[in-house]
Amino acid sequence: MHSYPSLLAMEDAHLVRYVSFMQSPTTLFSIFGSAQKLEPLPARIVGVERIAPAFVHLVVEGEQLGESPSSVYVPGQEMIVDVGGGRRRKYSILRRDPARSCVELLVFVHGRGPGADWAASARTGDTTRVTRWRGSQIVWDPSARDVVFLGDETAIPAFAAIQRASPGRGLIQGGASLGAALDFCGLRVERATRGEALLAYARGVAVHERTTVYVVGSPPSVNAIRQALEARGITRVRAKAFWGKSRRDA
């Protein structure tokens, strides 16, 4: 059971501030540009829950994760976490509670690697260092009037955060733990097992000129889906490869 029910309400209460703030190109530059200069700061894990064999839910607390004029968070943004051994990993923020200086992460534990090993072994009270949220291609688009989500398990936290700001539809493809993760996050999309379902969906989904399509997955999958969308003349595409073997092992 989710131990931090207030986080969803707290995050939604702040969305109204983002709408007008995010319309400004100057604001976008300051958010996405200045984030590159932030230094890692201490943080502590205050909640751990294995919601499914392949997913670990973490609540991370740190003074720098609280509210401040320079810390505007946009749904879908990532946070950089030290995972040990001098390695760092980016994780999309599932929810944020600025009043309690907390963020929630939902880590997909696939195979072995520094990030997967860190999440699988995480315990309440563990300390780490994090760099506050930064820009990403997969962030809330306040100009969108329709949203389509296409991705695999790694997309779930970002898509769930964006969908709370802009309700949308789409398809997530994955394995046995997929349903539990979607239900936990409240992400309302169609579900499919691995195969060509995402590509078929991209070739047939109905869109209009104000539809933003988000695409997340492995490099080959992202490239194939983006090409299928572009072949249909769909230009409002935000695509990013969230994982690959070289990234997992580095």
Describe the fold and architecture:
The protein folds into two domains: 6-134, Elongation Factor Tu (Ef-tu), domain 3 (Beta Barrel), CATH 2.40.30; 146-249, Nucleotide-binding domain of ferredoxin-NADP reductase (FNR) module (Rossmann fold, 3-Layer(aba) Sandwich), CATH 3.40.50.80. Residues 1-10 and 16-36 have low confidence and may be disordered. The protein is globular and about 50 Å long. The strands form two sheets. The protein has a six-stranded antiparallel barrel, surrounded by five helices. It has eight helices and eleven strands. The longest helix is centred in the N-terminal third of the chain and has 16 residues, at 6-21. The protein starts with 5 loop residues before the first helix and ends with a helix. Helix 6 packs parallel to helix 7 (219-231). The chain is an alpha/beta fold and 250 residues long.
Question: Topology, please?
Answer:
Blueprint: H1 6-21, H2 25-34, E1 41-52, E2 55-61, E3 78-84, E4 87-97, E5 102-108, H3 114-121, E6 127-134, E7 146-151, H4 156-165, E8 169-173, H5 178-185, E9 190-192, H6 197-204, E10 211-217, H7 219-231, E11 237-241, H8 245-249
Parallel strand pairs: 7-8, 7-10, 8-9, 10-11
Antiparallel strand pairs: 1-2, 1-6, 2-5, 3-4, 3-6, 4-5
Helix pairs in contact: 6-7
